Description:
This protein is mainly β. The chain is built from 11 helices and 46 strands. Strands 35-36-37-38-42 form a 5-stranded mixed sheet. Strands 4-5-6-7 form a 4-stranded antiparallel sheet, with no helix packed on it.
Amino acid sequence: LVQVYPAGIYHVRADGRASEWRPPRGKPIVQASANNRQVAVGLQGGEVVYFELDETGTLAELDKKDLGLEVSCLELGRVPDGRARSRFLAVGGLDSTIRILSLDPDECMNVLAVLALPAQAESAALASLQLGRPGTPPALFLCIGLSNGVMLRARIDQRSGQLSDTRTRFLGGKPARLFRTSLGGGDGVLALSSRSWVLYSLAGALHTTPLSYVPLDAGASFASEHCPEGLVAIAGNTLRIVSVDRLGDAFTSEAVPLRYTPRRMAHHSVSGHVVVIESDHNALSADEKVQLYEAAGIPPPLPAGTVLPEEEEADGMLMEACVGVPRGGAGKWASAIRVLDLAARRTLSVIELAENEAAVSVAAVPLRERGGETFIVVGTVKDMTLHPRTLTCGYLHVYQFAEGNTQLNLVHKTQVEDVPAAIAPFGGRVLVGVGSGLRIYEMGAKKLLRKAELKGLPTMVQSLHVISSQRIVVGDLSESFHFVHYKRADNTLTVFADDIAPRWLTAACPLDAHSLAGADKFGNIFVCRLPREVSDDADDAALMAASAGRDDLALNGAPSKAEEVVQFHVGETVTSLQKVSLGPGCAEVILYTTLFGGIGALLPLTSREDVELLTALEMHVRQEAPPLCGREQLFFRSAYFPVKACVDGDYLTLFNSLPAAEQKTIADDLDRTPAEISKKLEELAARIL
């Protein structure tokens, strides 16, 4: 046991004997690092003293070196298996440099390498991480936490001690503090800033992953019978023991149980709460199931998400997730509207819809007739059958928040003749897609008042996107996007452009005033852009008059056409698209989710050099690493439309798993080194998360 404090080093042996070393007067210890055989301390003034256990178990001073500058951090790596000592000591100085000192007996404390840093080093960690294929020797990395919140990683040559292949990662706004730990059966690094991160090796690749946990102040490895590979950490004034699970997963999830399948959600910006609409076809409502069970004399099973009591009390209880639920038949719906507090992961209130109504759309709409107060507008259908689609009628429910924004009170509901599949706020009014028509409603005392309408859209309005006070983009169920101009003076809606290809849209997201990202049910993602000249002519009175009042747009299309600038086949039906930034320092990406539970991201490339490099790299990887099943990667990504202006990032990651000879061949053709290509791929991944 070794205790290092400013006035000295206190060493307690296994037999209880103790010894103490004291620094020279006026030179207290300011930095220290140790492993199971070595200790290094930094004294005030820049002197570094090195100790090592001798054959008798005594901590002996072997050498010292005066660097001539104040020491900001020290790091001794773990002693490798089969060796007596760690060969290197990393010393960070206040001159924004870090030095690698040799600890070999023949050249002890000699400077092997010096690395200039963009900011002062706050901490350092030496970690031996497995790279490449199994069986290859692990590589030694030096991770440096800088005062500007950046972690710098460099590879150390285990023979010469030279540093190479430096890479950076922004961690947060606070100075980065690094702690060597054990993760995934090997070395790892816990990196703490305004957010906590872990660096580890998995399947021959390095991963830097944020922790979904409260910010930590300090940490160290912890192992016990119940937690063989964990962390002991300090967060504020609490001591915590943490286990890092599911290494390799980029996201963590928490589930909130619902009654039915969630369809859509709306965010209430005032309270931060989320309104979720749920609906299931061929299902019975909660009250109808209770009545059915009572009539049959069967104890009702517990709904999904119920926490079972102790084993003795839970004996004989059934779960709906295990035994199933009674079916209601075709045309029978069960639906509910739920208010969720996402911060607390709890349900605030639930409204069960009666009379065989099913919620299909929802939006939070500020209404100018009520002073800008935000109301929740829910579109429902009654007695709807799916194929062929028939229904008795549809409704637009208007709800007002009450009881401290925890309850919804029904203000009124308005009957419509078709499916209100899309709702959006529009300048203090409500924009609703009803069947194949587009309508603008205002708030009335007893119902919503129709103020404008556009008829003749091809199939059914699937989504609505308000770009400006005059431009609306309508996503049609089977005919892709339609650009609509609203003329306030005449209170008219006119289609002035549409897409060139028919698309069965499943998700859409506006990117800017002229571009939208969309996805269809066949697994394609595309970007549709309005040409600049069409955008400029949108307000032209002649163009508007040419298409005003035309109900034959479903046959002839709009006067102008948009162009599709990106085409990419994902392979799964995309259920949602969103333009987001996943963290501080990350770029905006198009995040998508799929029907099978996948989450992916499309990163825009802003440099022509990056585009040319990645395109050429994809071509070479396609030749060197063909898919196992034999289908060409290019054919797969072009399953419905030829792939265009999109590079397959998943496929490029195969470069790091190729043999070294093939990597060098590809890199030579691209006039780069394998390390430079690997660094570029890592930098692009770091821009996403």
